[in-house]
Design goal:
The protein starts with a helix and ends with a helix. Helices cover about 30% and strands about 20% of the residues. By secondary structure, it is an alpha+beta fold.
């Protein structure tokens, strides 16, 4: 009886060992299949980043679990500054050995530093930088790209893999040139087709038969477009006289800067540059203007800045197109310039990207022009180019 039990146990042990031998290659295959290659579209996990501290430039994705302040200290509240954060493969990780410490360059601190953005705790982000020690701990330094995964309540389709790959790691004119080449040669639509496009891009999420007007914020019936006093019309946010491109296909019909506006308010704005100050508009409360500039309501200041950033990158004078540039002036008239650059950069920071902009960007990319506004996808690139 005892020998029979021993034989049974021995057979069970042998069977278990055989299963382990068979399963190990399968397990290794699954692990390898799930691993990223460190590119933007296939980022490393945090554990991969920890094991690859070789000074290579890679993208790592993980959950924000705190701020490192020393080799053996990661705090989860009362953040003293915006200089660093810790990432882990789990949002509840507490083991320092399973965290990678991320240095945050000044360009990204206002958007990703924990003192300014404590709500990032537990959120998933991805960062491109150099895999090297930080605080004498496995780290990621000299970041060139940061992105919050699934930010906001609107969850857009992911940017197609590789869309911005040529831009990562660049700054200044090199970044501007790379982005131009990415968003150039978009699918153009006619000016008459802009009406229908704006009915989709600027639809009121709460009232699908309406559009939201840019300067007044008023929700208005989609079909009340025209030239009447209370109709809505097609506003060129980059004033079409600034470069004298009119309504020609290309800059004159580019949906990334065309918005529905109240006709009479649009007339008041005319071709004014953007700046702070002036008298409040009687019909569009919160908007101010004088003889040389227009200040929009606070809720769309960042939107307007990012539309102008897009135009200055998209139109660079090649292929017979106008070369549009931002400057720090007003009264630009018919010159291919728009201002005021310093104010636009302030507005961009004060009014961050929101769900309406993300939704609009997706619709333009998917349904119409098949190009994107990079400054909605990567707000940090405005500072990287112009500051």
């Amino acid at each position: 009886m005892l020998n029979r039990k021993r034989k049974g146990l021995l057979l069970t042990f042998i069977l278990f060992a055989v299963i382990l031998v068979i399963m190990q290659p399968i397990q290794n295959s699954i692990t390898r299949a799930a691993a990223g290659d460190g590119s933007w579209s296939s980022p490393y996990s945090v554990s991969q980043g920890i094991n690859a501290q070789n000074n290579s430039a890679k993208t790592v994705q993980g959950y924000v679990v705190g701020q490192p302040t020393a080799t053996n200290t990661v705090i989860t509240s009362g953040f003293p500054n915006d200089y660093a954060l810790a990432l882990a493969d789990s949002p509840t990780e507490t083991s320092l050995a399973k965290m990678i410490y991320v240095q945050i360059p000044s360009t990204f601190r206002s958007s990703f530093g924990l003192k300014s953005n404590s709500s990032l705790m537990g959120k998933k982000i991805k960062v491109t930088g150099t895999l090297t020690a930080y605080f004498s701990h496995p780290g990621l330094k000299d970041g060139t790209a940061f992105e919050l995964d699934g930010s906001g309540t609107f969850d857009p389709e992911p940017v197609p893999g590789g869309y911005y790959d040529a831009a990562y790691g660049k700054t200044g004119e090199s970044l501007k040139s790379a982005l131009h080449n990415i968003i150039d040669d978009h699918t153009e639509i006619s000016y008459s087709n802009v009406w229908e496009a704006l009915r989709e891009t600027d639809e009121d999420p709460g009232k699908p038969n309406n559009v939201i007007l840019l300067y007044t914020g008023r929700s208005q019936d989609k079909l009340t477009n025209g030239s009447g006093v209370n109709d809505w019309n097609r506003e060129h946010v980059w004033a079409k006289s600034h470069g004298d491109f009119g309504t020609a296909m290309g800059p004159g019909t580019d949906l990334h800067h065309l918005r529905p506006t109240d006709a009479s308010v649009n007339s008041s704005r005319g071709n004014l540059d953007f700046d702070n100050g002036g008298s409040q508009h009687s019909e569009a409360l919160g908007n101010y203007y004088d003889s040389d500039s227009w200040e929009p309501r606070d809720a769309v200041k960042g939107d307007i800045a990012r539309m102008l950033f897009y135009m200055a990158v998209r139109y660079e004078g090649d292929s017979g197109e106008v070369d549009l540039e931002l400057n720090n002036a007003v009264n630009n008239g018919s010159a291919p310039f728009h201002g005021k650059m310093s104010v636009l950069l302030e507005w961009h920071k004060e009014d961050p990207v929101d769900d309406n902009e993300r939704r609009r960007n997706e619709i333009i990319y998917t349904d119409y022009q098949h190009n994107r506004n990079p400054f909605i996808d990567h707000p940090e690139w405005a500072s990287a180019i112009w500051e």
